[in-house]
Write a structure and sequence with these properties.
By secondary structure, the chain is an alpha/beta fold. The protein is built from 19 helices and eleven strands. Strand 4, helix 8 and strand 5 form a beta-alpha-beta unit. Helix 4 packs across helix 11, helix 6 crosses helix 11 and helix 11 packs across helix 13. Bound molecules: pyridoxal-5'-phosphate (PLP). This is Probable D-serine dehydratase.
Length: 456
């Protein structure tokens, strides 16, 4: 019998080479730590993007702030800057320690991108940034605006008419489409959102209500992206937002780190050599967690440790990083189905750009079962009265796995962090949730309650 080869190797050979591969293929939970993880000063030399690029993105968002404040009144109180709160969640920390029967050293915090204005997910960073960047490029090329202008003039029929000659296309599992659709439609662009089968109905309905064209597929995210890319190739006035490769998306996400630094100072959370920071980031294709990680590394260097989180059925980034194959392999190649309720993370093939850029800066990556996400959802709601969508709970799991899993304990020892853990801060990046309709959230919550009483 001839066996299928994946990049020249049989499944048996892959399993022999990587001790975690068997568990990953069996969709068991794993915590992988990165053997290529290195010092920031060495890693950054190999990366073509720099702090200057992130600062440039930050400045662009400041230029657009007067416009954003005008057209999205919910951003008035932050003067048009789209930023989320960070909160300490001690009740949740105690609950987790109880449930997992393990002590978590340090303090637990939640970065509430779930409550970002305009689109209620981390995509309100990268997605909106790239649309604004494209709009600015077009407006400058056509002498409609200058960098010194007050950008609130963009809220006018003149600009809407101008942008209506152009269109924007994107492939998405839901939230990226939501942020790009809402922002582009507001500016006046024609927008086409290619949605994978995972996308929730309410996300499609909301976009259609804003005049966005939603094209639905029976297949997964990779197909939706491919179709969006194809559509844009045949139209010179159509701009494709490439979630798999875009440096603009990446830089839009990265800006978060500079703002987080200020927020942490305001609540007296210290990050330095004696006070390590751990950050847990839900990962789909990798752009969001990757961009945030890049920014955090620029700001906190070796004092920050970033872990990515994926569903056990969509472990594309952990496979890509572990094998070094990045976007050359998909989870389906290994017989994993990429079917998960965590729609924001339902991606079978990772971004090669993100994996290669950050291969020496990501500390590790772990997987979590859907059932755990629901349980954590209901526990967070009960303990802190914060409601998130299932994808956004993937981060929390890591904060306790670091202590429960041997690989996590080895990471702490190998990085000489053992005696510093009591001073550590753990930031869980809550990537989405505030726009979930009440009745849908109620179903999630009930599911979590039921699962808590049975499985744990
Ligand atoms: C998109 C998304 C992510 C992950 O971002 P990627 O850029 O796809 O890796 C995480 N959580 C939620 C809720 C998302 O929508």
């Amino acid at each position: 019998m001839s066996e299928k080869l994946i990049q020249g190797k049989t499944i048996y050979e892959w399993k022999k080479e990587y001790s975690l591969m068997n568990k990953i293929i069996s969709t068991e939970e794993v915590l992988w730590t990165n053997s290529r993880y290195g010092k920031f000063e060495d890693a950054i030399k190999k990366i073509s993007l720099s702090e200057e690029d992130v600062k440039d993105a930050e400045e662009r968002l400041k230029r657009f702030a007067p416009y954003i404040a005008k057209v999205f009144p919910e951003t008035e109180k932050t003067n048009g800057i789209i930023e989320s709160p960070i909160v300490k969640i001690p009740n949740m920390q105690r609950k987790i320690e109880e449930i997992y029967n393990k002590e978590m050293l340090g303090q637990l915090l939640l970065k509430c991108d779930s409550h970002l204005a305009i689109s209620g997910s981390i995509k309100a960073r990268g997605g909106i940034y790239e649309v604004l960047k494209h709009a600015e490029d077009l407006a400058i090329e056509n002498n409609m605006i200058a960098l010194e202008d007050d950008y609130s003039i963009i809220d006018s029929d003149k600009f809407r008419e101008f942008f209506s000659k152009y269109s924007i296309a994107v492939g998405s599992t839901g939230n990226l489409g939501l942020s790009i659709g809402i922002m582009s439609a507001q500016l006046g662009f024609k927008v086409y959102v290619h949605m994978s089968a995972d996308a929730k109905q309410w996300k499609k309905d909301l976009l259609r209500s804003k005049g966005v064209t939603v094209i639905e597929y029976q297949s997964d995210y990779s197909k939706a992206v491919e179709e969006g890319r194809k559509q844009a190739q045949s139209d010179l006035n159509m701009y494709f937002i490439d979630d798999e490769n875009s440096t603009n998306l990446f830089l839009g996400y990265a800006v978060a780190a500079y703002r987080l630094k200020k927020q942490l100072e305001e609540i007296n959370v210290v990050v330095d050599q004696e006070h390590p920071l751990f950050v847990y980031l839900p990962c789909g294709v990798g752009g969001g967690p990757g961009g945030v990680t890049f920014g955090l590394k620029l700001v906190f260097k070796d004092n920050v440790h970033c872990f990515f989180a994926e569903p056990t059925h969509s472990p594309c980034m952990v496979i890509g990083l572990m094998t070094g194959m990045h976007d050359k392999v998909s989870v389906q190649d290994f017989g994993i189905d990429n079917i998960t309720d965590a729609d924001g993370l339902a991606v079978g093939r990772p971004s090669g750009f993100v994996g290669k850029t950050l291969e020496n800066l990501i500390s590790g990556s772990y997987t979590v079962k859907d059932e755990q996400l629901y349980v954590l959802l209901s526990v967070l709601s009960d303990s802190e009265d914060i409601q998130l969508e299932p994808s956004a709970l993937a981060g929390i799991h890591g904060s306790i796995q670091l202590f429960k899993d041997d690989a996590g304990q080895r990471y702490i020892e190998n990085n000489n962090l053992k005696d510093k853990m009591k001073n550590a801060s753990h930031i869980v990046w809550a990537t989405g949730g505030s726009m979930v309709p009440k009745d849908v959230m109620e179903v999630y919550y009930k599911k979590g309650k039921e699962l808590s009483s049975t499985s744990l």
